[in-house]
Amino acid sequence: MSEPQLAESLPAENEPLVTLKAGERQVTILGTAHISKASADKVDALIGSGRYDAVAIELCPSRHHAMIEPDSLANMDLVQVVREGKASMIAAHLALGAYQQRMAEQLGVMPGAEMRKAIECAQKHNLPVLLIDRDVATTLKRIYRNVSWWRRFELITTLVMSVMSRQKVSAEEIERLKEGDMLETAFTQFAEQAEQLYVPLIEERDRYMSARIVDEIDRSEARHILAVVGAGHLKGMQSHLGEDIAVHDADAARRLIADLETVPPPSRWPKLIPWAIVAVILFGFVLGFKRSPDMGWQMVWDWVVVNGGLAAIGALLARGHPITIVTAFLAAPLTSLNPAIGAGMVTGAMEAWLRRPNVGDFSRLRTDTSTIAGWWRNRVSRVLLVFLFSTIGSAIGTYVAGAMIFNRLTGAG
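Structure (tokenized):
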């Protein structure tokens, strides 16, 4: 395949547009705002012009499926999600979607309107749709693994604040900022201040989508591809496609794709910490009983009441079922001694079993989670809150009860 060269930028009213050449073939990249009627209209006009024979969009297969099958969440086995420890990931998806949904509602434009329009128009004109973005779960995992544990706390706080914020954003500001998709929009300010977040969130995806375009040019017979991406990616992709020699070769591009799809393995020492804490706690119990059965039983009592109590408070704050709250109190002291099983896995599964979500809960999930009250009102999101809050409560309880046991052994308590 010939080396892509930067061609003269095509005129556009408000949407940045640039065309790259690869021999006799071309790729036109349209930079859009993901919450913009103007961007959706531009996509409609370009595809309708008949100049393109393929449409590449900034979506991964999972987000594409969610967009064309909005009711797919109704098929989710919530109990299985909790048991597999995926509740946190689902909650993060909902939080990000809620942020963009709220902004879109202010402007009267659905999130990802230009992507929906691209899919609709491509189908109308019988054009293939090429999904060039990296899977959102992989991006979130690479973000999580790329930052330190205290940065992870900031990341979670940013997600929470994005859901709680009621700040109004004008259509003019949206058109002017052109920040990109829901990930970038929610974390833009934080990403600018933290390279560890900026790299997997934006820079890696610039490289990934550039490599995917090179791959598609090599594989497909399309003579002119229209790529619809967030305007925040346009400059980076233009730079990689025009200057980065590594992505000019299709085989090199595929190696880069495989590399950027790999989730770095977690560090070993964070996995060892929970087991070390359990070993210390159990050793404390042994020392306590050796000194005095009364001291030993008092330490066990401290462990059960504090750990179970805080987990139960977490379930209560999530408005869990009374039986779920009792389950949290009983399960947390035991699950905290087995890092392979979290208290949230037990309480979340119990809540989902006791208050099994119906079809209406799943169908309202996206709109309900756009408000704070909706997270507690919807049975699906409430299960996720039960999982998260009881997990946090049990984690805090482990450290508090551990400190109490230490104080008893040292005579400080």
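The first strand starts at residue 4 and ends at 6. The two ends are 73 Å apart (CA to CA).
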